[in-house]
Amino acid sequence: MAVKTNTSTTGAKTGRLAKAWQPFTRVSMLSWLVGAFAAVILEQLVGRPLAYMLGLGKIPVLFGFVMMLKTPLLIPSAIVYVLLIYIFPIAIIARLTTSVGNKLSAWLLRYPMAVSALIHLILLYGTLQIWGSINDYRNLVLRLTFIAILVTLSLNIINGYMGEFSCSTPGFLALGAYGASVISVSMFANDNLFGPAIFPDSWGVFVFPLALLLGGIIAAIGSLVVAIPSFRTRGDYLAIISLAFTFIVKSFIENLEVVGGPRGLSSQPDWANFTVVFIWVTLGVWIMNNFVRSTMGKALNAVRDNEVAADAMTVNTRRTKMVAFMFSAFWAGIGGGLFAHVLRYVNPATFGLQKLAEVLAMVYFGGLNSVYGSIVGAVGFNLLSEALRPLEIYKWIIIPVLLILVMIFRPTGLIAFKEFDVHAIIAPKE
User: Fold this and answer.
1) Among 175, 247, 309, 320, which residue is least crowded by beta carbons within 10 Å?
2) Which residues neighbour 283 within 8 Å (Cβ) at sequence distance 6 or greater?
3) Domain range annotation of the chain
4) Percent with pLDDT over 90 in the chain
5) DSSP assignment of 56-98, as one string?
6) Helical segments of 73-192, H only
């Protein structure tokens, strides 16, 4: 009887939660973004005095998680702050604007999809820009998280969509980071290695995109070292080849004194602000999403499912692998260039086994063969890592345990094999 009672109670609670959530199922993405934008504006206006009134001393940087772990006595105050600044305002505004938001979303869909997508992106950018402007730490976390999305999705093309197991992403990151940094530092910075600046820093807005593209091209060319042997190998053999490539790149840079060797390379100009990172990552996600949904993307899936059958069905498997490796490496190189200019310092030790473990964790945590999964994996892993930072060494026990649990209960990741459909995201709810 006790078991039946507990089951009935659990069912009743679930039913009440579902009933409470029901009105929000019709809320469009536009309304949610408006609610989030209003919440960050509210934080700008009253966040600081509210934090002082609740005894927090300052505005929580990551929704109160860091503060709660550092000082458990502040847990109630941090929860109240998050409820008053984020949860309640977003929910109320999203609910109140449901009808208007749905009508506006439907009206926007009469125009090309790019118009509606651009409006949603502007709202998202404005929300994140205001949220990140509270302090430098938030801004840094935002930029690194966005770069992680780009890098995770680039690896997912190989490990997810093509079904291989590549460990070469840190090598691609290093090539892109150093390729872009050499251009920017040698031409626009006063550095001990390269001497005084050749051109004024004001030219950077025009040169930085070219430097990033060059870093991506260098990474793409370097990927041929992995791509060509991959024509004849699969599975464990490819993993060994790609891992060897990462060690080769790392060792090569460590012994290259012209770029600082093991000491690293610094003095990168401060060109990778949030706006620049947001634009590049948005562009990268859009291009990679189109790539995996194209004919080439379908060919990748065919190679993953059965390479012999794909070859028999006239899929050029050699060309498919080559294009996929170079395409993936190019965007990883772009991510490496952005990473170097966000930190304004790059060191070969950064691109070792720990970086490989982080990128693989984000890919498999989020989900294979899914743009959604890469975004969720990168954002979730980075925010979790930052939120648990006060635990120091213990966070590297908690995070692996969580990843193990995900692999046990969701072997393919949280959101796997799900297409990123822009129309479904911004279309008004019925």
Assistant:
1) 309
2) none
3) 25-132, 136-426
4) 43
5) -SS--SSTTHHHHHH-GGGHHHHHHHHIIIIIHHHHHHHHHTH
6) 75-82, 88-96, 98-108, 113-132, 136-156, 169-188
Encoding tokens for residue 112?
């090309």
* CATH fold for the domain made of 136-426: ABC transporter involved in vitamin B12 uptake, BtuC (1.10.3470)
The predicted model gives 262-268 an average pLDDT of 88
Q: Which among 150, 197, 186, 108 has a CA at the least distance from the CA of 328?
A: 150
Contacts of 87 (CB under 8 A, 6+ apart): none
DSSP state of 259: G
User: Per-residue b/e over 114-133, b at no fewer than 16 CB within 10 Å?
Assistant: eebbebbeebbeebbbbbbe
Backbone φ/ψ region at 137: left (φ over 0), alpha (ψ -120 to 50), beta = alpha
Measured between alpha carbons, how far is 27 from 47 in angstroms, rounded to an integer? 26
Rg (CA), the chain: 23
Number of DSSP helices (H) and strands (E) in the chain, helices first: 20, 2
**Who has greater pLDDT, 226 or 129?**
129
3-state secondary structure of 266: strand
Quote the pLDDT of residue 187.
Answer: 87
Q: How far is CA 428 from CA 38, 39, 94, 123, 398, in A?
A: 20, 22, 13, 16, 39
pLDDT digits (tens, 9 = 90+) for 384-427: 888 888 887 788 888 888 888 888 888 878 887 777 777 777 77
Identity of the amino acid at 104 = L
CA distance 249 to 242: 11
Cα(367)–Cα(374) distance, integer angstroms: 6
pLDDT in tens, 317-335: 788 888 888 999 999 999 9
Q: What's the pLDDT band for 7 if we cut at 50, 70, 90?
A: low
What HEC string does 297-351 produce? Answer: HHHHHHHHHCHHHHHHCCCCHHHHHHHHHHHHHHHHHHHHHHHHHHHCEECHHHH
Task: State the amino acid at position 105 in one-letter form.
Answer: S
Of all residues in the chain, the percent with pLDDT exceeding 70 is 94
